[in-house]
């Protein structure tokens, strides 16, 4: 406060400072300071996604085998809030997908249907999108590429399906040249 300010002006400034101080005070209970818990939940979510949306025990084992120490409570919380797992549970309650004149009786992640779609070329030079649809839920994964090739198909499957959902038992396609290739048939 300036010593050359009138008393009424000084009182007004003092009053304003008190109001600002009150507004700036935050009760500790209003701030979530549990950063360690948030970090553990983040790790549990990562492990659950990376292990292929498996159940609580399988996610726990997957994380433990990789040196990540998680609690069952955190894993359960993540699974309870997981949209992918909710879609899988709902798909299990409905009739299996009808495809190609037969009912698919696969579990989640065991069967995928893949194809390329063509889009206008992006600034990054990508013109095609590999679409990968999980057969029991309709879950869609995409992988944009500059060219529809066998190599890009393998990369897309590896990054979007294998790493996230595990190795499928069956992959169905329209048998285009990028799907019928020595790289893919091995």
Structure in a nutshell:
This protein is α+β, with helices and mostly antiparallel strands and 186 residues long.
List strands and helices in order, with pairings.
Blueprint: H1 7-24, H2 35-50, H3 56-65, H4 72-80, H5 83-93, E1 98-99, E2 102-103, E3 111-118, E4 128-134, E5 140-145, H6 150-165, E6 170-172, H7 182-185
Keywords:
endonuclease activity; Integrase catalytic domain-containing protein; 45% helix; 2 domains; 6 strands; Nucleotidyltransferase, domain 5; two-stranded antiparallel sheet; transferase; alpha+beta; single chain; 186 residues; elongated
Could you please describe the fold and organization of this structure?
By secondary structure, the protein is α+β, with helices and mostly antiparallel strands. It has 2 domains: 1-81, no CATH class; 95-185, 2-Layer Sandwich (Nucleotidyltransferase, domain 5), CATH 3.30.420.10. It contains 7 helices and 6 strands, in the order αααααβββββαβα. The chain has a 4-stranded mixed beta sheet with strand order 5-4-3-6, covered by helices on one side. α2 packs across α4 (72-80) and α3 packs across α4 (72-80). Residues 27-31 have low confidence and may be disordered.
CATH-scheme architecture of the largest domain: 2-Layer Sandwich
> What percentage of residues falls in helices of 4 or more residues?
40-55%
> The CATH topology of the largest domain, please?
Nucleotidyltransferase, domain 5
Number of strands: 6
What is the molecular shape?
elongated
Can you list the strand order of the major beta sheet? Answer: 5-4-3-6
Termini distance? Answer: 80 Å
What sequence of helices (H) and strands (E) makes up the elements?
HHHHHEEEEEHEH
């Amino acid at each position: 406060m300036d010593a050359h300010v009138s008393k009424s002006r000084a009182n007004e400034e003092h009053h304003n400072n008190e109001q600002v101080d009150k507004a700036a005070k935050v009760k500790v209970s209003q701030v979530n300071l549990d950063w360690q818990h948030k970090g553990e939940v983040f790790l549990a979510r990562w492990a659950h996604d990376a292990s292929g949306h498996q159940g609580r025990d399988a996610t726990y084992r997957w994380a433990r085998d990789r040196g990540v120490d998680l609690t069952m409570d955190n894993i359960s919380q993540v699974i309870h809030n997981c949209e992918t797992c909710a879609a899988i549970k709902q798909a299990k309650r409905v009739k299996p997908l009808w495809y190609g004149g037969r009912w698919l009786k696969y579990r989640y992640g065991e069967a995928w249907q893949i194809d390329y779609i063509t889009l206008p070329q992006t600034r990054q030079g990508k013109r095609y999108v590999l679409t990968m649809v999980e057969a029991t839920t309709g879950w869609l994964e995409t992988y944009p590429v500059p060219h529809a090739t066998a190599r890009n198909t393998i990369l897309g499957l590896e990054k979007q399906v294998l790493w996230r959902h595990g190795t499928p038992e069956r992959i169905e396609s329209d048998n285009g040249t990028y799907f019928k290739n020595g790289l893919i048939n091995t």
